[in-house]
Amino acid sequence: MADPLHIVCPHCDAVNRVANERLADQPVCGKCTRALFEGKPLDVNSARFTRHISRNDIPVLVDFWAAWCGPCRMMAPAYAQAAGRLEPRVRLLKLDTEASQDIAGLFGIRSIPTIALFQGGQEVARQAGAMDAGSIISWVQSRMRAA
Is 12 considered catalytic here? Predict the structure, then answer.
């Protein structure tokens, strides 16, 4: 067996070790026993954002959004649909830029919606503007191949 991947639980934020070949086997958290992947984006605050970005060994896609943003609300169902197709190979997060202005400022988010792909705790790609599910999936897959 190759080195296990570290996967942060979307429920209790515990870091779990999961064999790469077992990601699709519906793994559960060793601490809270809930599913590690549910096929939907995870809403995070600043602290949870940092933990998921820094401790997940799989790529993490973040939707920077705000409740008052019309295009953000329009893209939300497409982002959720993309989560169902990209997990368990990619973790999808949603970060409200109004509630987490520190993170939005740290990453220089100037327009929303903006999606950013992180690998190994580092941002590797960014795209501003609303996208449909197919475009989100294609964008992520092409960036993962390039990385």
Answer: no
